């Protein structure tokens, strides 16, 4: 259970770091014309206590930092790990570009396949070396 809570916390920290590191300034909004909140869709496999904790963290973010940065996260459990992996694979094979969520939990083998298909974004362009150093290498 502690391991799952740790993974949940790490995922949320990454989301929060990405949102905070790249929050748009008023100049950015004026430059790009974005006045509506940025919507981030997150799929995960959390259930029970993990789901309650993750939902609480997402709600807190959306009502605080997310609101001020105009970023809103919607998170949805896709069932268990196998269910999530199946839904990710199905979405990756879809003809619609918008089928995959913005952020999702996955294992390395699935991530390698999605990267091979060109469906993942290299996040290193958005994170400084200092920020990356805050995370365990095996989670990056």
Walk me through the structure.
- The radius of gyration is 16 Å and the shape is globular.
- The protein is mostly helical and about 140 residues long.
- The protein has helices spanning about 1-20, 25-30, 50-65, 65-70, 80-90, 110-115, 130; strands at about 40-45, 70-75, 105.
- The longest helix is centred in the N-terminal third of the chain and has 20 residues, at about 1-20.
- The chain is about 50% helix and about 10% strand.
- The protein contains 7 helices and 3 strands.
- Helix 1 (about 1-20) runs parallel beside helix 3.
- It has one domain (about 1-140): 3-Layer(aba) Sandwich (D-Maltodextrin-Binding Protein, domain 2).
- The model has no long low-confidence stretch (mean pLDDT about 80).
Number of helices: 7
Gap between N and C termini, in Å? 22 Å
- Class based on secondary structure composition and strand pairing: mainly alpha
> Under the CATH scheme, which architecture would be assigned?
3-Layer(aba) Sandwich
Q: How would you name the CATH homologous superfamily?
A: Periplasmic binding protein-like II
C-alpha Rg (nearest Å): 16 Å
Number of domain units? 1
Q: How much helical structure, as a percent, in the residues?
A: 40-55%
Mean pLDDT: 81
Query: How are the strands ordered across the major sheet?
Result: 2-1-3
Largest beta-sheet details: 3 strands, parallel
Give the total of beta strands. Answer: 3
Large-scale geometry: globular
The parts where pLDDT drops under 50 for at least 5 residues are none
Output the helix-strand order: HHEHHEHEHH
Which percent band covers the strand fraction? 5-15%
